[in-house]
Amino acid sequence: MKIYNTLTRRKEEFVPITPGKVGIYVCGPTVYDFIHIGNARPMIVFDTLRRYLEHKGYEVNYVSNFTDVDDKIIKRAIEENVDSSVISEKYIEECKKDMEALNVSPATTHPQATKEIPDMINLVNTLINKGHAYEKNGTVYFRTRSFNGYGKLSHKNIDDLESGHRAEAHQLKVSGEDEKEDPLDFVLWKPKKEGEPSWKSPWSEGRPGWHLECSCMAKKYIGGTLDIHAGGEDLIFPHHENEIAQSEAANDAEFARYWMHNAFLKINGDKMSKSLGNFFTVRDICNKYDPQVIRFFMLSAQYRTPLNFSEELVQDAAKGLDRILNGAEKLAGIAGKNNGKPLSPEEEKLLQEELPKFTDRFDEAMDDDLNTADAVSILFELIRFTNANTNENSSSEFAEKLYDTLFELSDKVLGIHIVRKADEIADDELSKIEAMISERTEAKKARNFARADEIRAELLDMGIIIEDTREGVKWKKA
Question: What phi and psi, each to the nearest 5 degrees, are found at residue 83?
Fold first, then answer.
């Protein structure tokens, strides 16, 4: 498998540090509100990476944090006149609900920053003792120039960065607000302000800087050097750059071997912004579309390709997903008959010679820097193959093997369910639908076609589409 490494700006063969095991750290959301649709892309993309690595036989330790102490959380808590922990715990639970809806598997560990403060204090102490950090009136800063590799991830020149900070630094020094030795130095620990959550430390009662949190949690729950560190491309600088600096300065070891970053998600061609009125939460979108459509849409483009979210493109994704679901439904119907027919010579040949090619080509696409766009196109080819080679006379064993391949690639690897969820419909509604279909069948037998058409229309009003097939009446949600 080859991965595009942001650190080296090229695709590299993925070789884990420990054979057969992979440690992945993905920066999670700051929990002050419902997660937005932009948050969903890295969640889905790197969940798919994890699934694919497991498909290849790796044991994956997948860690994704919740940032539960932050200015935005504190601001929200003050507005609602509650403790900041009330806000963070509420939205952690809401985030988990949205992740479940999108079929994002729970991480091996979901650490929370507020529960890891002692480790953060220890890391700051280590950096001070090594001369990489210093304290000024209760604030601890990282001495950026003390780390020779600063800028290696973002490929920024430290002298260019300094020139960009000169005007800002001069203004701060004039006003007496700046205590940094260098304008590039960043905060590791900050003293509390009135009404803010805080923890005791050797320097002040306060809280950690944002960059510090991920460095500590990654080391604690994965240990040593990470195989893969991932997140959105907006985190490359300064967040991931600062993580590298403080981690490698403290530990004298490489922080992460491979860095993966997904491209931005735009809304109708524009950057998502509340001021533009195009800011959507995952909850908003999932109330309008099936969450599986959203996941399918996100995987329709390779993760480093910018993705445009629009009504038209999501509807196209819904149609594409429906083709896969219909194909799976057909296979399940044939397999479920248990007709006991032996495999025909043609079927046996297809299973031995043709079917493995789909899995091989799917893996080839995914091995090429997680190219889910090409992998999805191979699913469509697999559906065309099954439609062309199965009918009511096919053996159930043949259909079952085709279904198993589709399930492995779509459901297990891409996280796209190929079974329509009947349990999304309440039992009483399900009984009503089935009773109406039975009544329609009897009406047709009695040649009361007007009543049969009325029932079809009534079902459509309920969001139910029915289809007359050789195997009987089939229905699905619109």
Answer: -70, 145
The CB density around residue 7, as the number of other CB atoms within 10 Å, is 20
256-262 sheet: strands from edge to edge: 59-64, 21-26, 226-232, 256-262
Per-residue pLDDT tens for 17-64? 999 999 999 999 999 999 999 999 999 999 999 999 999 999 999 999
* Radius of gyration of the CA atoms of the chain, in A: 27
Packing angle of the helix pair 311-335, 291-298 (nearest 10 deg): 110
Q: Residue 314: exposed, middle, or buried by beta-carbon count in 10 A (0-12, 13-18, 19+)?
A: middle
Side-by-side strand order, sheet with 133-136: 133-136, 139-142, 186-191, 206-208
Q: Minimal CA–CA distance to 370: which of 153, 30, 34, 55?
A: 55
How many CB atoms neighbour CB 191 within 10 A? Answer: 16
Rounded to two decimals, the pTM is 0.87
CA 219 → CA 48, 199, 246, distances in Å?
23, 21, 12
The number of angstroms, rounded, from the C-alpha of 92 to the middle of its chain's C-alpha atoms is: 15
What are 52-99's pLDDT values in tens digits? 999 999 999 999 999 999 999 999 999 999 999 999 999 999 999 999
d(CA 172, CA 190): 17
